[in-house]
Amino acid sequence: MDKEFRDTMRTSFIFPVRIGLQIEGEKKFFHAFSNDISQGGIKVSIQKDLPVKEKLDLRFDLLNEDRFINQISTGAFIAWKNEIKKGLFEYGISFEKLSKGDWLVVVDFIKTYCFE
């Protein structure tokens, strides 16, 4: 059995994610939960079949060490997908336009809540 190699730390802290995308020229939003975040992106499971490379707008909240909630809003894209079971998909979503300040919040969150 191959052991999966990850070059960044990840956490299993569950948090809600708001995902926005263009569908037939109109911005549509839906909600998901993530339990996997890294410095480069998040993983979500949803009942929506989306294409790889689809551009998204993400919004989610993260706690810092002082338990202050930081709202992160960023452009992103679907890097990969797996169909877990019929009609349920798992997506790897990569951050595209994460600001330096938001990136620092993500790093702080991972350092605080990461399970090694």
How would you describe the overall organization of this protein?
With 116 residues, this protein is mainly β. The protein has a single domain, classed as Thrombin, subunit H (Beta Barrel). It has one helix and six strands. It has one helix at residues 100-113; strands at 15-23, 26-37, 41-46, 55-63, 69-85, 88-95. Strand 2 (26-37) and strand 3 (41-46) form a beta hairpin. The protein is globular, with a radius of gyration of 14 Å. Residues 1-6 have low confidence and may be disordered.
Structural class by SSE content: mainly beta
**Which CATH-level-2 architecture?**
Beta Barrel
| CA-based gyration radius | 14 Å
For the termini, the CA-CA separation is: 20 Å
| Largest sheet data | 6 strands, antiparallel, barrel
The residue fraction in helices comes out at 10-25%
Number of strands: 6
Shape: globular
Tally of DSSP helical segments: 1
CATH topology value: Thrombin, subunit H
CATH class division: Mainly Beta
How many domain modules?
Answer: 1
Identify low-pLDDT runs: 1-6
Strand content: over 45%
Round the mean pLDDT to the nearest integer and report it: 84
> Which H/E pattern describes the elements?
EEEEEEH
Strand order of the largest sheet: 1-2-3-6-5-4
